[in-house]
Specification:
This protein is mostly helical. It has helices at 7-19, 32-35, 55-64, 70-79, 83-86, 89-109, 114-121, 124-130, 134-173, 182-188. The relative contact order is 0.09.
Length: 191
């Protein structure tokens, strides 16, 4: 600043640069000449496919999907947001938080506590601090969904494990009988 009257403009430019930190990669130096870039960090609402970003889609996938499908699901889900939007760090953090909260809600619905989710999936605050790129967000989401499915499978094993063991035991005891049928096994284990 060469003159005192220019201090106001310098302050405004510094504030603009400070606010752009949400749209750029962390630990970057922003220069004045780069502040006026056309569309820097712009959000394109038309680039978002609103039908594909519903929280119920994530919950449905967590309920019915398998671990081998996670990477393809995450790629498809992220593509619904649009490439330009995902390049914004603040938007990456939003998508991360949204995904984590969907996992938490799903886990509560199947009987797991918040502490169990925290223990297996990690702390949201710590994970958000580690996300510095679109690739890091994608990797986190893949890991988060895989861990969530592991928790889901543990619940299912606890829930149906005794039922399956009883059915196997009945079949082993009565495998030589000619009238053994699926209906008889099912009625014996109360299914």
């Amino acid at each position: 600043v060469y003159r005192l009257r220019d201090l106001k403009w310098s302050y405004n430019d510094a504030n603009k640069a400070l606010s752009l930190r949400y749209f750029e990669k962390p630990d970057q130096i922003l220069y004045y000449k780069n502040l006026e870039r056309e569309g820097a960090g712009a959000f394109d609402v038309n680039g978002v496919d609103m039908e594909k970003i519903d929280a119920h889609i994530i919950e449905s996938f967590l309920r019915n999907g398998i671990e081998e499908e996670v990477e393809n699901f995450v790629d498809g889900y992220l593509s619904a947001y649009g490439d330009q939007n995902i390049s914004s760090m603040i938007f990456c953090h939003y998508v991360t938080m949204h995904s984590y909260l969907c996992v938490l809600r799903f886990q509560r619905s199947i009987g797991n506590s918040e502490e169990q989710v925290l223990q297996v999936c990690g702390s949201l605050n710590e994970e958000i601090g580690r996300i510095s790129s679109q690739e890091a967000m994608r990797a986190f989401m893949i890991r988060l969904f895989q861990k969530s499915m592991e928790l889901r499978n543990q619940v299912n094993n606890r829930k149906y494990g005794k039922l399956i063991r009883d059915a196997k035991e009945y079949i082993q005891k009565h495998c030589g009988e000619s009238d053994l049928s699926l209906n008889k096994v099912a009625s014996t284990v109360n299914v």
